[in-house]
Amino acid sequence: MHPLRTIYIDMNSFFASVEQHEEPNLRGKPVGITAMEGDIGCLVAASYEAKYFGVKTTMSIKEAKALCPRIILRPSRHRLYVKYNQHIAKIFDQYAELEYVRSVDEFQIALGGKTSNLKIASKLVQTMKDALKHEIGESLKFSAGIGSNHLLAKIAGKLEKPNGMQWLSPDNMPDRLLDIPLEDLPGIGRGILFKLNSAGIHNVTEIYNLDPKHARKIWGSVIGERFVRLLQGENIPLESTKRGGYGNSKMLAPENRTLKNAYLVSRWLIEKSVARLRRDNYTASQFALFLRIQNPQSRWGSSIKTHYSQDTAHFLDINRKLWRTMYIQKHPHLISSISIQLGNILPLPKRSGEMLLPMEMAKKNERERLARTIDTINKRFGASTVTYGINKAHNGFFERG
Ligand SMILES: [Mg+2]
Question: Is 389 contained in some domain?
Answer without folding.
Answer: no
